[in-house]
Design a protein that fits this description.
The complex is a heterodimer of chains A (101) and B (468). In chain A, 10% of the residues lie in helices and 36% in strands. Chain A has a 4-stranded antiparallel β-barrel. The longest helix of chain A is centred in the last third of the chain and has 6 residues. Chain A starts with a strand and ends in an 8-residue tail after the last helix. Chain B has a domain of 262 residues: Rossmann fold (3-Layer(aba) Sandwich), CATH 3.40.50. Helix content of chain B is 43%, strand content 15%. Chain B has a 7-stranded mixed beta sheet, with helices on both faces. A 4-stranded parallel beta sheet of chain B has the order 7-6-5-8, with helices on both faces. In chain B, a hairpin with a 3-residue loop joins β1 and β2. With 468 residues, chain B is α/β, with parallel strands linked by helices. Chain B is globular and about 65 Å long. Classes of the chains: A mainly beta (101), B alpha/beta (468). The interface between A and B is large, with 40 and 64 residues.
Amino acid sequence: MDIIRKGSWVQIEWILLEPGERPEHLPPETRRVPLRVKAKGILQEDAPVGEPATVVSTCGRVLKGTLVAENPPFTHSFGPQIPEFIGLGDALRSLWRKSDE
Amino acid sequence: MNNTYESVMARKIEIMKKSLLMDFAQFEQGKLSFDYEGMMNQYGYTLDEIRKIQREAHVGDTPLIELHNLTRTARALSPKGKGARIMIKDEAANPSGSFKDRRASVSCHFAQAKGFPGVAAATSGNYGAALVSQANIRNLKTIIVQEVFDSLGRGQPEIVEKTRKCEALGAEVIQTSVGPELFYYLLRVLEETGFFNASLYTPLSIAGIETIGWEIAEQCRKLHGGLPAAVVITHAGGGNVTGTARGLRKAGAENVKIIGASVNLEGLHMASDRDFNLKSFTTGHTGFGVPFATWPDRSDVPRNAARPLRYLERYVTVNQGEVFYITEALAVLEGLERGPAGNTALTAAFALAREFDEDQFIVVQETEYTGAGKHHYAQLAFAKENGIRIETGDPASEKAGETIIFPSHPDRICAREVDLDPLRASLIRNALKNRGLRPSDLSKTDLQFLADEVSRGTDFVSGVLNSL
């Protein structure tokens, strides 16, 4: 198992509220699952992924949770072009009236 | 310290007092009323002072752009003599890319002046980035609590982008799964750190938005020789409508019609783990727009400074496919690549322009930045992954969570009227219900307060009360 070294920038996760601790007015599909939290910080001791770990956050708070990963990348993207929109500019310009030119 | 949900929520009022330096109890009157204007003036900043604070922090004085090509397109679809010019306030030109910098600017100025070590807020939107940006200028630390992912760990791309941007600006970001309890965690953070509570709904936040209304009036007078017929405002939590309308009034533009616009997400529950990733819009939608209008004090402060039914004269909805279409049109006709949620009001304005005369003009009061995750291409790709069908046809038949329908022709884009009277009646009912009151419990002050809350006479309030 990968050991992440003390001092690394890591992500941890913990359960903030178990299903039974969540407010009653939530929809059932939300209340059925725990409220999970993720945060990042500097790892305080060597630890393997999936095991308990302590980090110090950007604002100096001590946070405890399960070690998720070392510095996970952002993977969200722009997505592909939308074929339905190709040529939209020409299509809209073709509607213009002579009188408005 | 007992940190169970119930214990922390029970300490809310105390935590608010310390983190806002404001005792909301001082404004309470009657059985359900409070002194709204008194609360708005409590921190004592004038509009001129706020303009100065914002200038110091590079916020505001954004361009008012005339959208010549979108206007020509709307005009081509209008009856003869109709088709108002469409202008847009390019709020993406603010430091963090949205009008939210205005909201954050005054809170950060105040927090710095009062010696707070940092600021914190629970927000999954552009406000997080705005707060960090403004806090950095004021040498304050920032913690942002965001609702990002569902129980399967899948993040909404737009909110993942907000995490990235907040972290890029140096904030501590706490990401939660779906649920309104991010506000519970924020209370714990405020208690632990002693940071300032930079809620979106304080008088400081709303006063910061008033400058948009003021700038619109001034720019229109200077550049276009007069005031717009209407200002169209994307409506979610109510701050944008409230602040802009108040600013217009302060600039002597009382006759400009205030029109709110939201994306119609009817049928999707905002706190649902299942519906969370079926939405292609994370703000500017009816899921916030309707509940916040009819019960403003559901917000994270005891009395919300954003009270949109005091100001809204019309409220319209548009559908997701229409907003994506107009977002693309803004790019290809006007050369402006901007975020889709900020184009909600623009989509409504495109439809509404056809009602107004050619010699009139209307103003859309915001744009927002776009980028990975919050670009309309990213949202459409994510929608497809979640099984949403993307079609071209009549956008009126779109069903949120199932389909996104691009208009087959731009004349199918429509601003659908929401009758405000049922929302007004709902506010009155909620005001009583939330305090366990009966109509006979109310004083004259309460009746007048409710009339002000819904911008109607006491006759209207009495009519609703009689029907209860």
